[in-house]
Records
---
Amino acid sequence: MSTETSNKTFLLATGNRGKQREFAQVMAPLGWQLRGLHEFDLPEVEETGLSFVENALLKARAASAGTNLPALADDSGLVVPFLNGEPGIYSARYAGKHGDSEGNMQRLLERLADAEGEQRAAYFYCALAWVDHAEDPTPKLALGRWSGHILKARQGDGGFGYDPIFQPLGDTRSAAELLPEEKNRLSHRGLAIAELLPQLA
Ligand code: ITT
């Protein structure tokens, strides 16, 4: 069966390389054929939703509309209850510039400079939205949450985004020090993918 006609072919609607890598690690071995946004010339989607799930759906619908492929989008981020949910849906541009992970971590460390113990509790959150076509009235949705604490300094250089300053509950390592397969088993994204897969069967 060619890639074009496989019913396991879909567009992964993300420009984030860290996310792309993690989806490929989990889904490609199961026979899914992931197409990438870089193959198409699509306009930027405005993430105007107030929640992760709304933004995931906006991104999935826009990507499917522009390609006529089923599309899967991920909207995710880090939530710190002590900071009233910051950086939340603004995680990618917390320090101003989209995708500036160093700046984003720096800003969060500064905001938590005087915080101790449970004040440093945080969780990663991931909303996945899959649409079969742009106007799909029954999108498939899946959520995942990964709890931990914000470290006082960066540790490790694996993963992406805020991983070097996030320590999962029950671990002494940061998320950036986990093996990729460990992160994929435990993480907000790994859990959301595990919840999505049976819906695609
Ligand atoms: P797309 O919209 O193209 O998917 P994005 O990076 O803009 O890419 P989001 O709006 O969902 O995606 O922002 C997610 C941000 O949250 C991401 O840029 C990281 O800073 C952070 N993030 C999400 N998952 C993460 C993870 O597993 N590890 C570390 N940081 C993560």
---
Amino acid sequence: MKRDDIPLLRESLPYINKFSGKVMVVKIGGEIADNEDNLKNFCEQVALCVRVGIKMVLVHGGGKQATALSKKLGIEPKIVDGRRITDEKTLEVTKMVFAGQINTDIVTILRKCGLRVVGLSGIDGNLISAKKRPPVHVDGSKKPIDFGLVGDIVGVDVNVINVLINGGFTPAISSLASDDDGEVYNINADTVASAIACALKAEKLILVSNVHGVLDREKNIISKLTRSLAEELIEEKVIAGGMLPKVQSAFKAIENGVRSVHLINGLSSDTLLMELFTESGCGTMIE
Ligand code: ARG
């Protein structure tokens, strides 16, 4: 830190006071966990947040890494309409990568940053209950497509999370779930993070990916996205593709008790601290 940076600490103090003791759910996209330096920078920021008293809850998936391991093992990923079909073999890979490799990496790095972290999946402590997604019609298909072992969330029990965060532990959750019959499902990590944030009535849900935030017509970052602007941009297809479900689930989270949702880029350094502890932030904020 330089002398000139000290005034920034003054800007941050009100936010540190405001957020201390609050719960924030942070979803980390696979691309952040894919690069060691990136993951390290991100985890250091998470550690700082915990140090100032924020109860951080991490959620991650790892679609990119799952595709890579599938290829290594000679399992061809089947993608229909941009969505992965999860058969038995693909689910095995998902379990290895989500609950194994990525979760262990995140827990280890955060431990090195001085945190007490507990790695778990949505299966642990009955955190996420799911049911199989029924076959759906996708564009151009005559008969409905069965996406296999992809689940939809039917219940969230955050008891285990409360026990951990109130005991001074930071939970790192991989986006797997199961039903009462012992079937395991692969669930979209954004969806899991949002469901947990709603159940915890979190102060913030922070979606960390490889984009800077929601972009407007001129491709500038929208600092604060209102519902009416979002509706316009969806109508004009400016918000489209992978951003559309993110924005839609952000507004759903707000309706269900989350104070604010933030989209930030985890591939640039220090974006989490900038978003939380400066007035203007660096990503998109939705309230
Ligand atoms: N630091 C403040 C907060 O987290 C404001 C963030 C503003 N962010 C933005 N993208 N406009 O509540």
---
Amino acid sequence: MKKQDVLKKGKAKTVYSTDDADKLILHFRNDTSAFDGEKIEQLARKGMVNNRFNAFIMQTLEKAGIPTQFEKLLSDDEVLVKKLDMIPVECVVRNIAAGSIVRRLGVKDGMELNPPTFEFFLKNDALHDPMINEYHIRSFNWATDAEVVRMKELTFRINDILSKLFKDAGLLLVDYKLEFGRYRGEIILGDEFSPDGCRLWDARSREKLDKDRFRQGLGGVVEAYEEVARRLGIDLA
Ligand code: ADP
Ligand code: UDP
């Protein structure tokens, strides 16, 4: 598979076209950003860790019947994926209150959410990814009602699969963000699943093992991601 042009340089990944019109290469860079790109740093090994982490999670989800973009790992920091027509919304599920919901609703940090809650955000850094609802998605034609139903269904199924996976590794899946796209008439999981886009706490100590370490300047960011990978049995080479 030949890498061709840069289609997009995002905050953490670069997207390349390939000689197959249906496939893209995602290059996971070491760039780490927070606060809609206001804080940016290079963290050694992060691209490799997230690429391998994401590949493991996507393959686990495929095995459990979730349609994903994943085709194959190409190198330490590159993966071949299906080229999706991305839907510009972020799907967030929360099992425990943390981050923006605590600030917005004044609820207690660390409070268990039973049932888990669901939020949509518009993918737009300039507007700071505002929270939106299903009516916005419909009125502005970001997705159809059927696509909204499917994204929610897949996001909750993924919660069941991954909450158990992390629980068995002594971790709490606090919340996470997913992005979906269209491929041959189907809704498929795109982008990535890594500690950059979710919150993971040690089940006993509640120590943060995700991107909050970077947001809050706690240090040991990539080391924490590697610890999670180790507990899941992911080979980081
Ligand atoms: P951001 O867009 O937040 O800066 P990234 O650096 O991760 O994030 O950029 C990756 C870009 O590639 C995003 O715009 C994402 O929506 C897009 N993307 C991810 N997976 C796919 C895919 N399978 N097909 C097409 N576009 C994708
Ligand atoms: N998230 C993300 N990208 C975004 C916004 C959020 O990956 O642009 C993830 C974030 O890492 C967390 C979850 O989505 O796991 C919920 O994020 P929240 O709304 O609490 O925002 P935050 O306070 O993290 O900015």
---
Amino acid sequence: MIRPDAEVSGRLTEAPSGAPPIPRVDVDPFSNEFFENPYPAHEALREAGPVVHLDKWNVYAVARYAEVHAVLNDPLTFCSSRGVGLSDFAKEKPWRPPSLILEADPPAHTRTRAVLSRVLSPAVMKQIRDRFVDAAEVKIDRLLAKGSVDAVADLAEAYPLSVFPDAVGLRQEGRDHLLPYAGVVFNAFGPPNELRQTAIERSQPHQAYVQEQCQRHNLAPGGFGACIHARVDAGDITEAEAPMLVRSLLSAGIDTTVNGLGAAIYCLARFPEEWARLRSNPTLARNAFEEAIRFESPVQTFFRTTTKDVDIGGHGVREGEKILMFLGAANRDPRRWADPDRYDITRKTSGHVGFGSGIHMCVGQLVARLEGEAMLAALARKVATIEITGPVKRRYNNTLRGLESLPITLKAA
Ligand code: OVV
């Protein structure tokens, strides 16, 4: 229960009127050890209490579904405008100008959100669907001809890169900056560890590329980018805001789906019974992708900042505190999910927080699902077996969960 009006204790570990102190947990969720296997720590975080304190980074955290969902759905108390990473924009200068949608609160957020919602609407999905489906089929045909491929580089990265930049309307030149730029963005949400610091140090060329490509004259007519700039003419946003909203597409639109598709292929390669069910019924592709998002949670965490003293599960938390939300732990909370550690392509996945929840819930979720459905349906129809044939290597990022390499061999149906 989260009660914004409740009395709070004066100090972190002091019990408000008999409530037990907030448990202090000694885990670093931004360490390679954690990235390798987060699940025992996720369980410990959930079991410790509805809210915990991470001494390593001096932040509060929620890992149970109920509290993660509640924080996501109370944006007035848990704001985004002070940043959704560990860094508090009220205290530290952001590494780049804040996003006009991700790092904004109502009413400013409402206007920019409406623009991106319209640009990425169901009607627009209808227009791009055939292109995305055809590209997925071409990709699978080519991978089948090779047989042995890397599911990360050759599929999870290659497919989004073959459809999304074109849908945005980007020029061909310089697209190799897109994944490195997103890598910086998602590392930068984390604490000032080596991953974050190194990423930001090397970010300049990627930032320069993105800034230039967000300009109206570099965006092809008919694409998402041009559609955003067209909202200037309609009076919805200013000329200065349009490139910043294109930047959001380039920040959040590729590496997320790369890791979502990677998660889905990794699931289907590890759970042959589920793969068999998908093959026998390719219309399950969309839910199989959604379940992979729940199961792996490619976006593992986001932070919020408290705007007032608040009660979380009977514990007082003061104004101006960072709260870390463990989306991946919420998505496997046994309090919410039956058999949470099972990948089940017919599970009722609705309510998972892999795309977030509430007013900030992924504005590009229809594009992500289109890519996921197109790719899994093409696999289901064309491929007989997916076998892991080499060492599985994890990729380390402060926010994104996924693989560096997944060697597979595909056999045609
Ligand atoms: C959801 C998300 C992730 C990263 C960047 C952005 C959004 C953005 O708006 O820039």
